[in-house]
Amino acid sequence: MVRLRRRDGPSDHRPVRRPERAHVVLYLLDEPAPGQSGRTVAVRLAPMAGLLRAAFTHHRITVPLTLCISANQWWDMTHDITPGPGTSTTPGPATVAFTVAGQLPAPSEDTLTTTFAPLTGRAADTLRTALDSATSAHRRAAVRPATAHTLLEQAATTFADPATTALPPADTVTLLHALNDRLIRDWAMSLPDTHTNAAARRLFTYLATAAVDPHEALACAPLTLLAVSAWYDDDQALARLALRRACRLDSAARLPALLREAFNLPISVQQLKELARAGRPTD
Prior knowledge:
283 residues, alpha+beta, four-stranded mixed β-sheet, two-stranded antiparallel sheet, 13 helices, 6 strands, 52% helix, globular, disordered N terminus
C-alpha cells in the first residue's frame, strides 16, 4: 500500500485512495514502409490495439479511445475490427480547436454506421449462399436453446482474440437465426459480463454485418446487443445509431424500442447490467 510522507511534518499514515475509474487513451504511431499506405500500418497494428485494450480492461482501466496515426491519416480503432480508409490529419480550424482542447472531432454518423453495415464482396456472397440455404431448409426453427447458448459462449471466447474477424458461415447462420428467439437474445445480453465487453462487442458487430442482403432483418437482434455493449463503453452515439437501425429493420421489435426510451432517460450502466443478468438462467 502506497503512503505519503509530508516534507515538513510527521508521516501521514492515511492510504492513498485510488480513483474509482481509471481511463487511458491509446495512440499507436508508425510510418509505412516505402510503397505501403497508412492503412497497411493500421491493419498491422489493429491486433496490437485489441490486445492492449484487453489488457487494460482486465485491470479495470477503461480505454475510451484508441487511435492509429500514420501517413498523415488517423483511424479510430476503438471498436473497428478492420480499419477503413482513414481520416486526413490535415490541419484546419476545427482540427486546431479540437487539438487545443485535447480531443479529436467526433466520428460522423456515416462513419459510425459503417461499423455495422452489411458485408460486401466475396465474404457477403458466401454468407448469402449459406443464409439462402438455411432459409430454404427451414433450419431457423431447428436451433435449440442449449445449442445456441454453447455456440454463443464459444463465439465470444473466439472473439476475445482481437485477430478474429469472422466465424464459419454455418455457425454465423445458426446464431443469426437463433437470436431471433427472444429468450436466446435476452440470454446473450449477459455475454459482456461472463466474458469481456470487448469480445462480446466484436461478436455482435460481426453478426450485424453478416446479415447480408436480402437477409438484413436478421441484424435486428445483434444490433440491439451491440447497442447494449456500446452503452457499457459509454459510446452513446453508436448505441443510439444501432438501435435506430434495429427499429427500422423490425418496427415490431419491443426491446430495441424500449432501450431507445431507456437511453433517453438515460439508464445507468449498472441498471442495464442488472437487466441483462435477469435474462440469464441462474443454474
